Amino acid sequence: MRSGILFVSPSLDDGRSLYEMLSRIAMPVRQAQNVATAGELLERESFGAVLTESELPDGSWIDVIRLVARRLPGLAVVVTDRLADARFWADVLESGAYDVLVKPFYPREVQRVLSNAVHEPPVLLRSAPAA
Fold it and tell me: Could you tell me if 39 and 84 are in contact, meaning their C-beta atoms sit under 8 angstroms apart?
């Protein structure tokens, strides 16, 4: 069963914080510190959704969205950033992400968004006609 979250971020503190928040709802978290490591983990392990920082040591959120689209189309990607404004939010959603989480993380919001990302398919997949 795909239920865990792949967190793509170089911040170990954010990783620990996220782990604590999601362990309360029995949702495992695995962390990759960059896009390259995220790609390796996506090939070897199964995840219910991806949460990525907007800026990464070897790329950005758009690189993570492209990576997921190539390897696991339909897997929800949530982007996080401290300075997320309406324009950023629109860019992220137009690029195919599931949602945006603004930092600092608020436990209930993180739990709600990531639980929905894991258990509800992205809107575009729900509205696509059956083949």
Answer: no
Question: pTM of the full predicted structure?
Answer: 0.89
Q: How far is CA 58 from CA 14, 17, 89, 95, 130, in A?
A: 18, 23, 22, 19, 37
CA proximity to 10, closest of 31, 40, 41, 28: 31
Is 38 in contact with 8 (CB distance < 8 Å)?
A: yes
Tokens of 113: 């968004």
Q: Please state, in angstroms and rounded to a whole number, the distance separating the CA atoms of residues 84 and 100.
A: 8
Q: How far apart are CA 48 and CA 89, in angstroms?
A: 22
| CB neighbours of residue 14 within 10 Å | 18
CA dist 15 and 10 (Å) reads 9
| Averages of pLDDT over each 10 residues, the chain, 131 residues | 86 96 95 98 96 97 96 94 90 95 94 94 47 41
